[in-house]
Structure to design on (1484 residues):
């Protein structure tokens, strides 16, 4: 066996997402074997010099810096991973791509559809690989769902409904960039609804129109707390979409369901190893199967444990990083398994359309720009 | 103990709902004890003479008739129970009330808000007791939810979301009055969404505006197959509402959830004996409780079995009938535990507003007429 | 159609089980249609004259009496239903059978295997129909399980495990005949374990040996509070059996599971409308199906509602009574769908063998007597 | 901040458990921060030279060897981790300890109670730290359960019941050392029941007596396929214990439940992030809470993600390794959070007692040897 090649990684951001991504790069070196590349963690950037140095020590980066341009300028870095606050997505990501580095950018790609489009346009022009880090595409149960749908097991789709319920937002004293309109761009919309619409597109194709609105419960809060919408899809299916940080009892409940003429699927991120599968096959024992997605022939499970030994939320990033490394190594496409920046832009366009629907009080068509 | 008094009952309709209501009248005579009245099943009417005679034999009515006016004219009947097709709700119900009989009418009250308003107006003018048979108010778990909400256990409400999922509609060969626009008025809207909006009002108060639409999947079908809406309530909460006959795997899944500043509640009609209760009380063991609503101090459970010995869907009608008999016997109000014809009208107004929203493509305000 | 014939019913006992059985007789007249017989509730007996008179008024018996012999002597009674305290099972049941009446007797049949054997022997000699009221055989999900097993869907059985968990016993101040050794004979053993072993036999055939014991937690309590056993079956399968009144959080949780070479089934009485079905069929979507046992082709569901409209615990008695009436009307066998007095005796023999195992500290063989 | 010190690790075994332990050592370097030691993976040993070399490359060991004695002789190794087949537990573990290395040994500690006792005795005499890798003690939900029990939240315990259900054993063609009597010592007993009895002891204290047996379904299989037992504990509680590889539909279902006078807890390893918590506190909303054990104040969660972002089975080993490193660094006790070799011996003693009970047909007392 030949020694796996190394790839140099630069990271912007170091907190919650920094831990998630660093962990993924480190595990990608041995959980998948042989890996497309062994990640070498070259540099990590952030504004708080002390904190970013500690992150470098902790996760094993060669150096820490408070200037992300150092990463862009570092020739040892071939892959730039941007997980900073939303306001810091555009400029560094574009700069890195234009410096010839492959790029990963956390969702939402930009703070608006316009900003997202611009990131996509500029990065696509460079020819590098780009992945928008919608990590929930890399949940084995979600991927299995997509495979079952692609195989026609649901027939014609009638409904897609989804909601992302969290419950940490109902506290006026919280201080985080996620409530800062400039830094975040939006609230539940970009943070949670972006995931919802990406999975909607991933599993059910393009939505055509939305009727809905964003809502802010707390006076003085700069961003939306919740989003509600009715939706119609290009494939003729209809449903509802929701995202909120005000649903007590739900910590991370991204729940979706899809109903077709031949069957249905249901999912809840709080039980991310499980997929509920219903088939209208005439069996007298009729009902949803609780499938523990951990079999040898399930997505990414060849890398893991024996059946029934479940994986965690953090492991979805391992699959994501692995997928990006594979795309770089083998010059394969990021999509459709992973989300590209075009997917990132499209999610933003849908989110903006919901905002517009709320403003106009009208059902609004979703219109995508192309390059 | 004095012998319970009898009350004469006349029934219009004899099929699915005829069995449900007849069973309720018969059980109400002994499950609740002593009952406000012992129901005497006097007459039952329907268009198919043979079938209605068999129903009379089966459920113990003194006579069968193919002319509902005979029931209206029968002085032995003090309570008229109308569970015929929707097109037969208005005229017989009004006639019975104007003949001085108390009236129960199945939901939807009328086929439209206008028709529903007219039924309410005419019946209210007579002074008889009137109940619109939204039997899901009489599920112990639903009633317990209302009691917890009334006691302030949820705090300020942030969200109400509900959906009624069934799966029998995706068959173009089905022949039932429920697909006949004249007989039914609407499809999933009046059949399922009416229940959703009644529970929304019962648990969370009045909705203020809706953005949504109805949808028909099958070409040639006269009525809607599904309804999708985003909703805002007068109490400041927001959410989504859905009803469909096209959700494979769900037989009778009326699911709702309510989130407040102090807690949350969840429910699914397919497990109607259970209520999920979350309290944001700082307990380290944080989560939804699966409450088996069958304790001695739970609604209507003094009438039933020891804890844990669950009741069925049919038993909700026993509570409903008992409630109506009590209201007649004691001259107490049907509302708010039960739905009056005003509630029936209001549900229809909301349903019609969703239809209007679909037609105009606009978010529509809900405007109720008063008497 | 000819008018259904009547059958005269006499009942001994009037409290919890009196309500359950009376309700069943009344509903059996119209839920199943046409019924084998229309039950005519002739007389009801009990020691508390006032209470038994109220029960007669409530449930519609022609008369009440404090002397069960009056029922035995009443020629209008063809079916004698004994649901009195366990100590009152033997003499009245035998007397009624010897008077030519068909007999239903609540479980446990007798307080011991000896007493149970004697009841069986004496009653069998008369030639009347006899049913031991193990009503859980009449849960549709349990019956469906049996049908799946009979059809070979599980293959060769490897395991049967079951437990009946309740939580009302941990209170020394409770006063009920169920804690009186003379009246009840035993505690959790006859009350709960009897159900467990009847379902074990019904679903998995005869147990061959048991190792276990009964246990009493509260000093001064006359009867056992819990039973624990390891068990081996004649078909080569093994498992555990448990019954307790001391399992906080479980109100009526009779849970069983059966594993075979081709599949598995699971059940919990607190969700009695559901059966969990697993098939080892190589499907990539591998898992237990949550089957809502309410389809038109499920056991007894032709009598009830559309799919998904669940039934209650009390309705299992309707099926039981219907089955007995059918056996009488058509001269068909009570077994194997229903439990006969032989089944009642065998359950008692197994229970006594567990007690003996506890006393001897040895694994004990189960030896049945025949007539 | 001072640089974390390194600790040299030697590992015996490289397959399934090799991946699990290697992953844990690598993650322990950064998930917990600052770590007690940064593990340096020095050497890995196994009989298949090619496979062990690949494992060394994959997980980052400095060298691979087919002679475990090289690890024992290597002064750079301070911690020896033995996860080879059961037959290889005793000699290398004892040798490593006697060479002054701290030791981790996979469960079962030895193939019999005698062998386990000998390992414990010899290792304890050296004074090194020893941990028997019962990793399920390191599931946050299990640890939370222990903390709730220690805090008295269950009151006096009445019942402990547990079962470990897997379903891969019903295939006579499988070829693995786990079916080799010499290599494994036993089947489901040492593999699964050992976990059950360790958790029984961890959560409920010492069992006093067992009545039960092991069972082998397949002719020609050298080891047991299933274990069934009734058990009584020193604290007065009773219950059942089971382990099997023949329960179709269950991949890794280690399920346990504990009932006390004040509440109950339930757990299933297939949903290892959840704990079911019942409190008999008189709340009208009475039921088990589904607690997603992922809060900041839950065991080990300070190291992980925001609430609701679940962890996987593999992460339990991270906690276990971290705990051992902490014990070494701070000279603190492995017990009671972790299992020592004494715990490993005691689990083996209980397993052997069940075997003896099966042989004698008698209820057997559990008698522990001390040093």
């Amino acid at each position: 066996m030949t020694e796996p090649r190394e790839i140099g990684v630069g990271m912007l951001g170091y907190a919650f997402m920094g831990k998630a991504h660093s962990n993924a790069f480190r595990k990608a070196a041995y959980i998948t074997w042989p890996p497309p590349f062994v990640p070498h963690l070259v540099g990590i950037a952030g504004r708080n010099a002390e904190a970013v140095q500690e992150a470098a020590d902790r996760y094993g980066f060669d150096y820490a810096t408070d200037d992300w341009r150092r990463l862009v300028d570092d020739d040892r870095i071939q892959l730039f991973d941007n997980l900073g606050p939303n306001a810091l997505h555009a400029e560094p990501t574009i700069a890195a791509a234009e410096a010839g580095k492959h790029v990963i950018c956390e969702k939402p790609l930009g703070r608006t559809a316009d900003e997202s489009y611009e990131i996509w346009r500029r990065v696509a022009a460079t020819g590098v690989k780009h992945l928008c880090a919608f990590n929930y595409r890399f949940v084995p149960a979600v991927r299995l769902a997509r495979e079952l749908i692609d195989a026609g097991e649901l027939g014609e789709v009638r409904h897609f409904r989804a909601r992302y319920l969290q419950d940490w937002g109902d506290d006026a004293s919280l201080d985080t960039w996620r409530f800062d309109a400039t830094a975040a761009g939006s609230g539940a919309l970009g943070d949670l609804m972006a995931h919802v619409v990406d999975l909607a597109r991933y599993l059910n194709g393009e939505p055509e129109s939305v009727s809905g609105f964003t809502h802010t419960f707390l006076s003085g809060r700069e961003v939306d707390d919740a989003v509600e919408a009715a939706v119609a899809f290009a494939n003729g299916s209809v449903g509802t979409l929701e995202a909120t940080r005000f649903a007590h009892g739900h910590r991370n409940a991204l729940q979706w369901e899809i109903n077709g003429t031949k069957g249905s699927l249901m999912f809840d991120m709080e039980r991310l190893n499980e997929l509920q599968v219903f088939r209208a096959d005439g069996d007298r024992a009729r009902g949803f199967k609780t499938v523990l997605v951990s079999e040898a022939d399930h997505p990414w499970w060849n890398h893991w444990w024996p059946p029934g030994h479940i994986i965690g939320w953090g492991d979805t990033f391992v699959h994501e990083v692995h997928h990006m490394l594979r795309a770089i190594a083998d010059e394969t496409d990021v999509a459709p398994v992973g989300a590209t920046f075009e997917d990132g832009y499209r999610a933003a366009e849908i989110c903006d359309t919901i905002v517009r629907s709320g403003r106009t009080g009208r059902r609004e068509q979703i219109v995508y720009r192309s390059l």
Remarks:
- Residues 341-360 of chain D form the longest helix (20 residues).
- Chain D touches chain C through 45 residues (CB under 8 Å).
- Chain D has a mean pLDDT of 97.
